[in-house]
Amino acid sequence: MNENRMSVGAFFQKYTMVIALVAVVIFFAIATGGNSLMPGSINNLISQNGYVFVLAAGMLLCILTGGNIDLSVGSVVCFTAAVGCVLMANKVNMWIAVLAMLGIGLLIGIFQGFWIAKLRVPAFIATLSGMYAFRGFSNVVLGGFRVDITNDQFLILFGGGRECYVPDYIRQWMGTTGKPNLTCLAIGAVTILVYILMTVRKILVQRKLNIHQSIPGQVITTVLISGVVGFIVWQLSNLRGFPTVLIWIALVLGIYQYITTKTAMGRHLYAVGGNEKATALSGVKTRNVYWFAYASMGLMAGLAGILTAARAKGIDPVYGEGYEMDAIASCFIGGASAYGGIGKVSGMIIGAVLMGVINQGMNMVGVDSNLQKVVKGLVLLGAVIFDVLSKRQKR
Amino acid sequence: MTNYLLEMRHITKTFPGVKALDNVNLQVEEGEIHALVGENGAGKSTLMNVLSGIYPYGTYEGDIVYNGKECKFNSIKDSEKLGIVIIHQELALVPEMTIGENMYLGNERGHRLAIDWNTTYSEADKYLRMVGLSESSKTQVKDIGTGKQQLVEIAKALAKQAKLLILDEPTSSLNEEDSRALLDLMLGFKKQGMTMIIISHKLNEVAYVADKITVIRDGTTIETIDNHGREPVSEERIIKGMVGREMTNRFPKREKVKIGDVMLEVDNWTVHHPLYPERKVVDNVSMFVRKGEVVGIYGLMGAGRTELAMSIFGQSYGVNITGQLKINGREVHLKKSASDAIKHGIAYVTEDRKGNGLVLSQSIKVNTSLAHLDAVSSHTVIDGDKEYAVAEEYREKLKTKTPTVEQLVGNLSGGNQQKVLLAKWMFAEQDIMLLDEPTRGIDVGAKYEIYCIINDLAAAGKSVVMISSELPEVLAMSDRIYIMNEGRFVGEMKASEATQEKIMAVILQSGRSA
Fold it and tell me: Å from A25 to nearest chain B CA?
């Protein structure tokens, strides 16, 4: 009995943010009379928050190295977008513009990472100066004015405008039109299937190696996640299918999940954050680990610049302000440790979705935008307080 | 009717999933030195945390009676008000602040708005004299050695008007000389009527200083041994209580191992202090170690042993390093990085497993593979199953006590953490193992197992250098012993010819001639 109660407590501790997310989703579903779960709302949630997922993925690596953050990403997003928009406005090939945006982001990341990794400039300061500098550069590039994008292909591919959805290839092939979007359903089904197969393989390996992990727990988790994914896919297929931005989000999240769990570099990120001295004495070149984290952050800022510009169909000198904070908040709400060494991509996704749902819900209910900021702040504080408290209890 | 200053009755403390203390009873008489001994994880520190209010009243069961009154402490402040002061194992001094500032940290002299520095420093000086330090209290803590820092901690406790002083492993980072001085200081305090509780792994010290010895095993009090007799109680007697059986041999037998060619040779090795480059920390040291040989380096804390090992390990310590390093007879120039040293087959198993050795927030598995990740990955992608199998293999080989290798290293006891650290370097398959205090702060049973591991390493043809400040260990485990003092090698002996007396004599002599 006693043990049973304990496991309930442990369950709550482990899945606090998931539970919080479910609670918030239910709350807004009721408050908006079910509107927040409609296809349109889900579609908007994804499209509006694309940049958050991308930036938070990059930010997670920086935070893992020891609670270091990158304050410059908002400005870098604006700067890369500005360069790209100006290039396209001058009739430069779209792909060259895209490569330029990604390349500039990466170069900025490498540049800032150099000071942080090699000269040990505190990340906070190195990126704070980047935050000022690149905001200034953006203004210079844009000449202080908004620059619009007219390249339709760019807009469709990166999630702006009316037609930025993955076309229904299956119905095209069948020669029919209508809803639901069969391509969307097919991709969703394959994704869920692959996910289930991976879980099965994991459980089989665990049995072989005699790792005692609760099998019902894993099955329930898998079923629930499949259910949620299925629901989202079904709703999207009844609108226009996958927004193209979702492809980019999925790609980034997949790659970062892989880096953090499967690669040596990922392992080194956790180790450096957990105990840098011990990691260095284990023969890991810790400076390169920092460098990698900030370079990847820069690249993601470049991608976020592309997504932001596409969604807004242009760029204003003030775009991207506060984006760094959204990314940082997502990571911390998602359970990343402010001291480094702890944090997962899955947690970060929950954090980002939670923020997004709260934002959108409050908009739909009609909460004043200033009040919205207060709520966001409190959510972040609450999440971190909870994290700290639950860790203290363990001692 | 004896007069107990402190009685802890039927203390039971439960953490989620474990009963850390189970009906523990402790009675401390006024004016005695009471020792608390037990293996790692037996519950000594937990008990002291209950006493000092770190675990507040209500989170445990049982009563604390101090000075005839029942106490319900809610924080350290409460217990300190009554004169119960605990000195923790890890020194809690701020290096950049002066001794005086440290001593009155949180207990500042003067009034609310301004610190009275004159009172602070004059009072601090007074207490420093009481513990036998001649330093000015305006000296920065970073400028004095570990031994003196420990004394500053004691002075700090005295400044809080301590009546019951609790010392948690006070000598774990001290050399024999400083340890002895500290113990004698304790005996001096006893004469003045101070009551003390000492927690220690060093049983000879316990036998020397304590009036009564309470043994804790698996969260319960086993017995309280009276040490008032003419002969101090024997270490074997205490160990019997701690492990619940007789330990006939504290050291495993060394098998005859074929000793091969010289593997590592260091010539005229000199290392300077990184902050004060004019200071030589290692001074013209020459040494070698053969394949299959265990070479002991004995020296007091601060003799430069750790610095020697770390400077050999890819210049991980020190500046302006000069001298030659030969591996397998060929001179090598290691770049300034640990990874280069590892490539040349050197492993350094640190004395500071929490600070320099392990990533506590990660699992046993992750720590085991960290120094040799290549071996479980292809093209920098880790093969999770392979990694798990490796961690499991070393868990079995080293008898690490853990439910699974996914357990976080931070949750393990000291002995098991040390095994994980050894596992990491054994898996790295290095030929030269520099072991720095491999048995520091771990209990007798785990020590024995680690000695077995060291013997196995030598039997497998590895060259082992074992740095230690425990003489019996050095004598029993080594084939050959270097004696180090003040940065220099002052003697070398075959273990078969060495005795404790001979080694101490060499050190004393070197001190005199210098």
Answer: 32
Q: Say how far apart CA B433 and CA B418 lie, in whole Å.
A: 15
3-state secondary structure of B459: helix
| Count of structural domains, chain A | 1
- Measured between beta carbons, which residues in chain B are less than 8 angstroms from residue A263? 377, 380-382
ipTM of the complex: 0.81
Rounded to an integer, what is the distance from CA B428 to the centroid of its chain? 25
Return the half-sphere exposure (C-beta side, CA atoms, 13 A cut-off) of residue A374. 5
Does the beta carbon of B426 lie under 8 angstroms from any beta carbon of chain A? no
Specify if A341 maps to a domain: yes
Is position A4 within any domain?
Answer: no
pTM for the predicted model, two decimal places: 0.79
Strands (E), B273-425: 280-290, 294-299, 319-327, 330-331, 346-349, 377-378, 381-382
Cα separation, A230 vs A42, whole angstroms:
13
Range of the domain at A349: 38-164+243-394
CA-based nearest residue to A101, from A239, A290, A304, A342: A304
In one letter, which amino acid is B276? Y
Beta strands B212-217 and B33-37, pairing class: parallel
| A24 in a structural domain | no
Q: Cα–Cα distance between B151 and B469 in angstroms, integer?
A: 20
Taking the Cβ of residue A275 and every Cβ of chain B, the question of whether any pair is shorter than 8 Å is answered with yes
Is A7's Cβ below 8 Å from some Cβ in B? no
> Amino acid identity, residue B28?
V
Q: Do A283 and B339 touch (CB under 8 A)?
A: yes
A282 close to B (CB below 8 A): yes
Query: Is the Cβ pair B385, A205 closer than 8 Å?
Result: yes
The beta-carbon neighbor of B359 closest among A10, A265, A271 is A271
d(CA A395, nearest CA chain B) in Å:
8
Domains of chain B: 4-243 (3.40.50.300), 262-513 (3.40.50.300)
pLDDT one-digit tens code per residue, A169-208: 888 888 888 888 899 999 999 999 999 999 998 888 878 7
The CATH number assigned to the domain holding A119 equals 1.10.3470
Each residue of B171-181: b (16+ CB within 10 Å) or e? bbbbbbebbeb
Q: pLDDT tens for residues B164-199? A: 999 988 887 777 778 888 899 999 999 988 999 999
Closest in B17, B359, B406 to A279, CB measured: B359
Structure tokens at B306: 């750790």
